Amino acid sequence: MIELGLSKMALIGAVALIVIGPEKLPRVARTVGTLLGKAQRYVADVKAEVNRSMELDELRKMKESVESAAREVERSIHTSASDFQRGLDETVAGLEAAGDAGFPLDEGASYPDGSPATAVVPSYRHPGKKWRLKRAAVPHWYKARAGVRTHVQSGAARVARFRPRRFH
């Protein structure tokens, strides 16, 4: 690229002053400055576009790698789910075979001795928690021993509480 030093710039300015003239030189200088600024912005935009396209290519490669990893995870999940399903089917088949052997599993069934088979379902019991009451994490006895305030008190009330008493 052309290196413009101070001496070369002075030579170009002197030639421009002679060729263009002192009346039109400021307008031409403004126009040249504007054109140079536009050229610099254009070059910067082209550089930014090239950088964006390079980043986009990198993102595409990353997207492909993530998609392939996701496909592999999905494949492994499907294989483990099918293995689990096969094991479950075998277990159910074994239980049905046991049910046919004298232990019926359907409703209205009875045990071999003739007694009715009833399912034991526990009744609902409320957990008994006081969910509206917020329980402190630190016990009150510890707060009392450590001198931690357990009640909220306004600033004015605190000042009044600790103000020295006057004797009349």
From TrEMBL:
GO biological process: protein transport by the Tat complex
Protein family (similarity comment): Belongs to the TatB family.
Compartments (UniProt record): Cell membrane; Membrane
HAMAP family: TatB
Name of the protein described by the UniProt record: Sec-independent protein translocase protein TatB
Keywords of this entry: Cell inner membrane, Cell membrane, Membrane, Protein transport, Translocation, Transmembrane, Transmembrane helix, Transport
A GO cellular component entry from the record: TAT protein transport complex
Pfam families recorded: TatA_B_E (PF02416)
Predominant subcellular localization, coarse grouping: membrane
GO MF: protein transmembrane transporter activity
Subunit organization: The Tat system comprises two distinct complexes: a TatABC complex, containing multiple copies of TatA, TatB and TatC subunits, and a separate TatA complex, containing only TatA subunits. Substrates initially bind to the TatABC complex, which probably triggers association of the separate TatA complex to form the active translocon.
Membrane topology (UniProt): Single-pass membrane protein
Superkingdom field: Bacteria
Function: Part of the twin-arginine translocation (Tat) system that transports large folded proteins containing a characteristic twin-arginine motif in their signal peptide across membranes. Together with TatC, TatB is part of a receptor directly interacting with Tat signal peptides. TatB may form an oligomeric binding site that transiently accommodates folded Tat precursor proteins before their translocation.
Species this chain originates from: Melaminivora alkalimesophila
